[in-house]
Amino acid sequence: MASIESFEEESNPVYDADYDPRSGFCRRSSIYRSLHRLGPRHRIPADLALDAATFVLSLFPSPGIADDKPAFIDSVTGRCLTFSHVRCSALSLAAALHHGLGLRRGDVVLVLSPNSVLYPAIILGVLAAGAVITTANPLNTAAEVARQARDSGAVFAIVAPEEAHKAAAADIPILLTTRSPDSDGPLSAEELMEDGDPMAAPHPETAQSDVAAVLYSSGTTGPSKGVVLTHGNLIAITAMVRWVAEASVPARDSVDVYLGFVPMSHIYGLAFFALGLPAAGATTVVMPRFELGAAMAAVAAHGVTNIPAVPPVVSAIARYSGSGSGYDMSGLRRVGTGAAALGAAAGREFRRKFPWVELREGYGLTESGGAATFAVAAKAGAVGRLLPGMEAKVVGPAAEELGPGMRGELWLRGPTVMKGYLGNEEATAEALVGDGWLRTGDLVYVDQDGYLYVVDRLKELIKHNGYQVAPAELEALLLTHTHIVDAAVVPLEDEETGQVPMAYVVKSPQSGLTTDGVIQFIASQVAPYKKIRKVAFIESIPRSAAGKILRKQLVAQNQQAITSKL
């Protein structure tokens, strides 16, 4: 493993006289380039006749080490899969899917399951067979699962037993993930892994340019769209996560153990736990879902050093009372957070309670393969610097390209950026412009040191009397209130001003907080046009599996309430 210092030695590539090595900004092209580059150990392979599964499996520890080293540990049962077991399982499944069930190159397989130690082997097995994966969130309804199956063109599904009733509506053949207690029950991927022949795995001649995955965005501002990622995208993502993982190891002989509760059905969990971390030789303790007490117990029991998380989890850990709990948290070294903005108050509270733990923010989208930025060294409020191989532009409302410190829409370009949206040429043309640039829809700025700051979603900005109000800014302020547990800000239509900010607030138990108290709390800290004009108290803020606020649900809820009154 390499140290952070050795990775820093690979930084600051030289371009030309117009390039600023401090910020990464080129004045001539108006492009920000990464301040890091991948060294020979982590470089993305140039072989175009390569699939993601072969690449990931080729990076597993050598056979002697792989036979004993845990790749995945079940946090509930303690079941352990070594790297050799995962490799054999993936290839055996690929052989059975191809020879026994007739799965062919380009066929789409729907995977519907909570996290499990078998999930990564299922993903790698499907990819090794030359098929395309589409992962469904187990929280989805039967109708949503059926819609995803139809939209993606899935011909087959691998489903957790408890989710089988949802997949039935898709009217496609189903393979369970685990063996049925009934000896005459349905066939399972687990049985195929155990009984199959890894030497019979097919060689479908998959290329990096071939489609590998169709992943569905969380749809926070509209219907979910199928994001098409190629094998080349997944290979690049694997290389990035492997670089991140090994950049985080303080010494060559250190052992890194990760806690995996971020859903593997989401690009964040998929990139880390099914691809990048196994390729880095790291051990992951797998949780089917996040539960605070169980997570802290797992940290103590398994010597967890790293937790990839989302903002609500960081907030929950920050409120967790470590003293007197009986759980030893001293081995925890790092908590990463992404998928949504982390409030400043939550960050401060976390650092106060766990001062020995590094808290790092990152940024990515499903459309960028989950990759974009990473913080080798954390900087308050920033989501890190561009990952190796990534480029960015900050574009203003008049299509002007902006330099450091100026706010505009973030455009990204790099090897992880999607091929497009499945069957939606209009949306693809809107998102991918020019020479491979992805318009993210996020309002950002980059500082003089090359750190990226996300202000808000452009489509979620509230337009009040010609001014733009960022909901994330008001949400961060609300979360500094001692009696506010969670909050979301959405636009409320107003005839005179266009829109006004409305806050949905989750207050702490037994709190006497009032609507006026919330309004005055914000009014004392912001410009008049940013004032919150209406407050609704709510039991919980609706969020996606990645922790993003589902504002459209709150807007719809408010519109329904107004309609009911009328």
Explain what this protein looks like in three dimensions.
The protein is 29% helix and 23% strand. The chain is an alpha/beta fold. The chain folds into 3 domains: 105 residues, Luciferase, domain 3 (Roll), CATH 2.30.38; 194 residues, Rossmann fold (3-Layer(aba) Sandwich), CATH 3.40.50; 103 residues, GMP Synthetase, Chain A, domain 3 (2-Layer Sandwich). Strands 1, 2, 18, 19, 21, 22 and 23 form a 7-stranded antiparallel β-sheet that branches. Strands 4-3-12-11 form a 4-stranded mixed β-sheet, sandwiched between helices. β27, α16 and β28 form a beta-alpha-beta unit. It is globular, with a radius of gyration of 24 Å. The protein starts with a helix and ends with a helix. The N terminus is likely disordered.
Morphology: globular
Mean pLDDT: 87
Task: Predict the CATH topology of the largest domain.
Answer: Rossmann fold
If helices are DSSP runs of H or I spanning 4 or more residues, what is the number of helices? Answer: 17
The CATH architecture of the largest domain: 3-Layer(aba) Sandwich
Q: What is the strand content?
A: 15-25%
- Taking pLDDT < 50 over at least 5 consecutive residues as the criterion, the unreliable ranges are 1-14
Q: How far do the termini sit from each other?
A: 65 Å
Quantity of strands, as a count: 28
The gyration radius over C-alpha positions equals 24 Å
Q: What is the domain tally?
A: 3
Helix content: 25-40%
The level 1 CATH classification of the largest domain is Alpha Beta
Major sheet size, sense and barrel closure: 7 strands, antiparallel
- Structural class comes to alpha/beta
